[in-house]
Amino acid sequence: MEQGNHTVVTEFILQGLSQRWELQLFLCALLLLFYIIILPGNILIIVTIWNDPRLGSPMFFFLASLALLDICYSCVTPPKMMANLFSGHRTISYQACIAQIFFIHFLGGAETFLLIAMALDRYVAICHPLRYATVMTRMACWTMVGSSWAGGFMHSIIQVFFILPLPFCGPNELDNFFCDVTHFVRLACTNTYMTEFIMFVSSGLVIVICFILLLISYGALLVKVRTGSRLGKSKASSTCISHIIIVFVMFGPAIYIYCHPFQNFPFDKTVAFFHTVVFPLMNPIIYTLRNKEIKAAIQQLILHSLACQDFKPVEGAGDTR
């Protein structure tokens, strides 16, 4: 489309993870294998927590919510990346690009607020154990999860609100395998200093503040656990350490991506790949490997399913003819 003397950009070209087709194919095959192994594992975690009444505590409710968020988050960018590779096309429409940005920040923001809710849950459980059952009710948990999604939605709307007015009339090549504000804003045909500053504050600065607050809170909880009674000390410490690992896994790459200037750096694609594809699928797995209750419940669910299949009546077994 022509507008004045400039061509209005209606689609963008995604450069992908590498200029070498063989390397991109290898990474996509690796990603597909990763999905086949890890994605069903996260679904299994959700099904186990949902069906096992022994896992009805708020901690497991939040873990199931985290697994659901991570599944959704990891399905935003890889399908388009693999479709482009196998079809030979590298384009993405302007509308689809905006949609990717919206869902990345929507789900990423929701996960940030959910981790804060999980930290609050651990605070009440460790510092006020006698009031835990009355404070962390089912309604309170649903409210906190709903607030996390609402907070992510508001964060994403802010991002989209400030990038929609940007004009695009020149280069349309995004040096990445998906659309994000850090690359999208650079292609605008206008001075984007103020937009970049707003993106830095709403994404980078907020992430750093949440990261520091979460580390301080979990550090204080670990001190509280170490100086408290021995009853349940090991389990509480293990849970807090799992949360700290997830905080580093999620916030480390996000801080790298959104806190440096809107310029290309050597490890941008690698960090973005792990942040948007690999790490989200691993978060619930880290919790599971450090939690004996979930591991036992998953084993029981699998054994029960296998037993039901073994005792399934064969069609026509009762026919005496």
What is the approximate shape?
globular
CATH 2nd-level architecture: Up-down Bundle
Strand order of the largest sheet: 4-3-5
Overall tally of domains: 1
Strand content range: under 5%
Specify the helix fraction band: over 70%
Q: Which structural class do you get from the secondary structure elements?
A: mainly alpha
User: What's the SSE pattern?
Assistant: EEEHHHEHHHEHHHHH
CATH superfamily: Rhodopsin 7-helix transmembrane proteins
- Low-confidence parts, pLDDT < 50 over ≥5 residues? 1-6, 316-321
The CATH topology label is Rhopdopsin 7-helix transmembrane proteins
> Distance between termini?
74 Å
Secondary structure elements and pairings:
Layout: E1 2-3, E2 6-7, E3 11-14, H1 21-51, H2 58-74, H3 78-87, E4 91-93, H4 94-127, H5 132-135, H6 138-163, E5 173-174, H7 181-184, H8 193-227, H9 233-259, H10 268-289, H11 292-310
Parallel strand pairs: 3-5
Antiparallel strand pairs: 1-2, 3-4
Helix pairs in contact: 1-2, 1-3, 1-10, 1-11, 2-4, 2-10, 4-6, 4-8, 4-9, 6-8, 8-9, 9-10
What does this structure look like?
This protein is mainly alpha-helical. The protein has a single domain, classed as Rhodopsin 7-helix transmembrane proteins (Rhopdopsin 7-helix transmembrane proteins, Up-down Bundle), CATH 1.20.1070.10. Helices cover 71% and strands 4% of the residues. The chain contains 11 helices and 5 strands. The protein has a 3-stranded mixed sheet. Strand 1 and strand 2 form a beta hairpin. Helix 1 runs antiparallel to helix 3 and helix 9 packs antiparallel against helix 10. It starts with a strand and ends in an 11-residue tail after the last helix.
